[in-house]
Design goal:
By secondary structure, this protein is mainly alpha-helical. It has a single domain, classed as NAD(P)-binding Rossmann-like Domain (Rossmann fold). It has helices spanning 11-23, 42-53, 64-73, 78-92, 102-107, 114-121; strands at residues 5-6, 40-41. A two-stranded antiparallel sheet has the order 1-2. Helix 2 packs across helix 6 and helix 3 packs antiparallel against helix 4 (78-92). The mean pLDDT is 92.
């Protein structure tokens, strides 16, 4: 994904928006696009994870074609792997560099940032 940025979102933020969407009658029917509150590159995310677990983690940028082939090789259906590859390209091209206010607008709280999320789940990837 090169230097492309995304706004990673925590699962509990997605769940909080879903709960409100399903239970708050004041919300109008709409598509709730959810993102985290900060834009980060994959190398930045890997750096945060490495700092959190206090050990080096290597980030290797591979071509989209290599990524798709790797997904297919582990059993991902080819159309799904191709769609993931398109997502990688969109991120690399900067088309996913956006932050939506959905979490704060719907839940009245800010989305969790990546670093505290990483600290909470560090034992799972240590």
């Amino acid at each position: 994904m090169g230097a492309g940025k995304i706004a990673p979102i925590a699962a509990d933020d997605i769940a909080a928006v879903a709960v409100h969407a399903l239970t708050d009658p004041s919300l109008t029917p709409e598509v709730f696009e959810v993102t985290g509150g900060e834009l980060l590159t994959i190398p930045q995310q890997v750096g945060i994870l490495a700092d959190t677990v206090n050990r080096p983690i290597r980030c290797v940028d591979v071509s989209t074609e290599t990524a798709i082939k790797g997904l297919v090789d582990i059993g991902t259906p080819a159309p799904v792997a191709a769609a993931v590859g398109q997502s990688f390209e969109a991120i690399s091209d900067g088309k996913m560099s956006l932050v939506k206010d959905t979490v704060s607008r719907v839940t009245a709280r800010q989305p969790r940032s990546f670093q505290p999320w990483a600290r909470e789940y560090a034992s799972r990837f240590a």
